[in-house]
Design a protein that fits this description.
flat
């Protein structure tokens, strides 16, 4: 039976039954319960060994070095990405082609292969020198040093990760910069602002709204990519330590589970930080729904319109 509300006749609609939704929910709940039951009751996981090693000194050292590698690699990658993104948009063809060559090489080769080459750097170049090519050795301008002395496995690890990550972040940065309208550049240039100030104060803050989400994903991916630095070899990383201790104690599964728990904890922390940064740069861009408030002309509606509205039937969707 229809009811009246504020002079409008409402339709008492009944929701359409959807048994498929409940059936699918029950099936998913049963499968999830089976998975949890299998994890808890399976003695082969050796959960007592997992919690015994979870806060051990060796694993905590691996966690610390994994976080350090992630932070340093992302810092180097971000600086390189901003530089390459600007060079890609430069009018100078030399800068543009150098940036394209860098991105092409590091995106086109696997990170594991790159790390192996970094481990062979002392063999390929026993000594490195800085100076003007072909002229430095003639006039004594070169600065030489032994490669193996200064390029330790730790340096090779985060430099290799950072250089590879810079190529991927460069495309993310470029996409973010292109998302800002060119009118922003033109308006700021018309005001006489320098290009560096325009980029720092106007373009980059607006582009960060587009850049932050994929950078957050790349940071989480980098956290897990650090497990490949064993190719150098760098032996203080979390996965390598967990695998080594697991083989030594004949309990590889519990040690790997403990490492996986730490990866999940760090990933959750990074996701929380990412959400905070996204909210910061999203200020002023929130979508505001236009609520159907009364307009200025709505108060002076004619009697004919009110009579017309009284004859209409509407579905009551208010909670």
């Amino acid at each position: 039976m229809d009811t009246m509300k504020d002079g409008v006749e409402l339709i008492n609609a009944k929701p359409v039954p959807k048994p498929g939704r409940w059936v699918s929910a029950i099936i998913v709940a049963i499968l999830a319960a089976m998975a949890i039951h299998g994890l808890v009751t399976n003695k082969n996981y050796q959960w007592n060994v997992v919690f015994q090693w979870l806060f051990s000194q060796s694993l905590m050292q691996g966690v610390a070095f994994t976080i350090i590698l992630t932070v340093l690699a992302m810092a180097i990658g971000t600086v390189l990405a901003i530089t390459m993104a600007i060079m890609r948009q430069s009018v100078n063809p030399v800068l543009r082609w150098v940036a394209m060559a860098y991105i092409w090489f590091f995106r086109g080769t696997p990170i594991y292969t790159q790390l192996i080459f970094w481990s062979l750097l002392p063999t390929l170049y026993p000594s490195l020198s800085f100076g003007v090519p072909f002229l430095g050795s003639m006039f004594g301008w070169e600065v030489s040093f032994d490669t193996a002395t200064y390029f330790t496995p730790f340096w090779m690890a985060f430099l290799g990760l950072g250089l590879n990550e810079g190529a991927y972040l460069a495309e993310i940065m470029r996409a973010g910069l292109l998302s800002v309208s060119k009118g922003q550049w033109e308006a700021a240039t018309a005001l006489g602002m320098p290009r560096a100030t325009i980029f720092r104060r106007i373009i980059l803050p607006q582009a960060m709204r587009v850049i932050v989400p994929p950078i957050g994903n790349e940071t989480i991916s980098m956290l897990k990519t650090t497990s490949l630095v064993s190719a150098i070899p760098f032996t203080l990383e979390l996965t390598f330590i967990a695998r080594q201790r697991g083989q030594a104690t004949f309990a590889p599964v519990p040690l790997l589970i403990a490492a996986a728990i730490w990866y999940l904890v760090i990933t959750s922390l990074l996701m929380w930080i990412q959400s905070i940064i996204e909210k910061h740069f999203a200020k002023g861009f929130e979508r505001r729904d236009n609520t159907g408030g009364q307009s200025a002309s709505g108060d002076t509606a004619s009697d004919e319109d009110k009579e017309m509205n009284g004859k209409l039937k509407f579905m009551d969707v208010t909670p």
